[in-house]
Amino acid sequence: MSEIKSVAIAGASGSLGPHVLKALIDANFQVTILTRSKKPATYDAGVKVIEVDFTSVESLTAALKGIDGLVSTVAGTAVENQTVLIDAAIAAGVKRFIPSEYGTCTTSPKVKDMPFYAPVFKIKQYLEEKAKAGELTWTVLACGAFSDFLFGGSMFLDFANHKTTLFDEGDNRISITSMPNVGKAIIGILRNFEATKNKIVRTSQAILTQNGLLKTAEELRPDIKWESSKVQASVILKEGLDGLEAGDFSMPVIMKIVTGTAFGGDIYGCAYDKTDNELLGVNELTEAELKKLVADKLV
């Protein structure tokens, strides 16, 4: 039986948060939402909402009393500040902390010193230190790219305009997982307390390449002609790093770092050949399901 019965979530109103919140409710956990302000929101009647100061250990500790697990889905800009959440979780006696990471190559040592990724590694190291001292346990979930974004945007394939910019030769592999299935994986972590204790777990519904996805699209709709170009992932990454060094901290520059690494292929470990899908209760996409995802974008 799971040792986790009550769960708090930070970042419930973001992109991933609502999917995790739904999974927690559907799994019948006692759910508490930590929020900066109690602005009107359509939360389930059984969910407790507590207004907190995310910069205050005292405020967060009071809100976390009696909570067994804490799931963070805070935005990337708030990742480094999760030390406050961790300290409060320890003070309140929380058993398990799942940090906001949920990335493609965030567990690769090759990105640990890069801007954007460095805060993620700082949090992981902080958790390892606290776990070693016996103060709490943690689990990091690596889930690849969100398929919702990958199929909903134009970075991998531009379905709307029938264009694609291939990274390198178009054969770089990347794992994908939908946001609802990330929620399901988090339930798997909480229900398998010992098996997921103080470790990185991985989930992947499919491993894709641009060429493979393009081939599927062409087979489904041979009447559509695609326009292709190429770019080196390493060049995109360098442009992003050079931009930051020059003092440009804009989102387009940050996205070049994310893109250059996430779509950089096996060099950054972006495809998970070994996963914890079975433990976490996540099913891989069947060929028919993948084709449907593509077909739905080709209407």
UniProtKB/TrEMBL annotation:
<dbReference type="InterPro" id="IPR045312">
    <property type="entry name" value="PCBER-like"/>
</dbReference>
<dbReference type="InterPro" id="IPR051609">
    <property type="entry name" value="NmrA/Isoflavone_reductase-like"/>
</dbReference>
<dbReference type="GO" id="GO:0016491">
    <property type="term" value="F:oxidoreductase activity"/>
</dbReference>
<protein>
    <recommendedName>
        <fullName>NmrA-like domain-containing protein</fullName>
    </recommendedName>
</protein>
<keyword id="KW-0521">NADP</keyword>
<dbReference type="InterPro" id="IPR008030">
    <property type="entry name" value="NmrA-like"/>
</dbReference>
<keyword id="KW-0560">Oxidoreductase</keyword>
<dbReference type="Pfam" id="PF05368">
    <property type="entry name" value="NmrA"/>
</dbReference>
<dbReference type="InterPro" id="IPR036291">
    <property type="entry name" value="NAD(P)-bd_dom_sf"/>
</dbReference>
<feature type="domain" description="NmrA-like">
    <location>
        <begin position="5"/>
        <end position="215"/>
    </location>
</feature>
